[in-house]
Amino acid sequence: MGEATRRAVLKGGLTATAVGALGFATARSAAAVTTPVIHSTAEWNARPASGAIVVENHKPTYIVVHHTVDPGNNTDYSLAHALQISRDIQNFHMDTRGWIDTGQQFTNSRGGFVTEGRHRSLEILRGGKQHVQGANVANHNSECLGIENEGLYSTVDVPVALWNSLVQLIAYIAHQYGISPEFIKGHRDFNSTECCGQVLYNRLPELRNAVGQQLGVSVARLDAPEWPLLKPGDTGPRVLTAQRFLRAAGFGVPTDGVFGKATADAVSALAAEHGLSRDSCTAARASDESAYLGSDIWPLIVPADRSTAAWRTELAR
Known about the structure:
Blueprint: H1 18-21, E1 38-39, E2 55-56, E3 62-67, H2 79-95, E4 106-108, E5 114-116, H3 121-127, E6 131-132, E7 144-149, H4 160-177, E8 184-186, H5 198-202, H6 204-215, H7 237-248, H8 261-273, H9 298-301, H10 308-315
Parallel strand pairs: 1-5, 3-7, 3-8, 4-7
Antiparallel strand pairs: 2-6, 4-5
């Protein structure tokens, strides 16, 4: 699968004004933000990219948190291991995904070592005015800078070293680009995926606050909850609501509140109809995410009688 390009309009209401994204530009100048150690592609002996690296002539809007899934939650916290997983990820992205290079801009190991992912990401970040287009958030790569965190965080928490390096790295990126902590997102806020894992995803408010402390700025509350993520096997009122919306969209699914095969087939068909990637993250290596119903599916089925924010708030109840 090729690298997804940006859609003209961000789905799911993920929009931002320049004032919102750069709102703390004056406050951040007084903050003492530590420049993290980031090991370059040369240091981990990266393969050359197989195509031209695209440099967007603008700053990213969002900093997006991922988990790698593979190689899992191992206990090798060494720098040598961090460099090796960078090579492994690049091989997977180039040889299996068919991308020109590593998909994400930066990788964070369980030992707290940060490496450059896609070539030129570090160089361009240091300039603070442009960003390298990655391939880690399908249909939104023009707006997003992605960080892969080594491990699988669906049921377990991240190591302290990884957490601390993630806070420091994001604070530095936000400082360089003038990005407010409110614009730190999880991958699932853009695509229907488990990524960055439920446990790590639940800690995003804490992450925003920790980054805000590093920057010396207060963190505003988000206007509305994000779209919920539903999976095959789920049951309950949200599934029933989704089924009703799918029926209204012409799909013959039951309205029993059980995310069974018919509902999964309808979601997969809807995604295919609209050209949505179902395999845009290494999280898909842990389970089949092709029928997940999340942030890129809900906007296609919710009625037009309410705003995006209103529907997200309603579905969060």
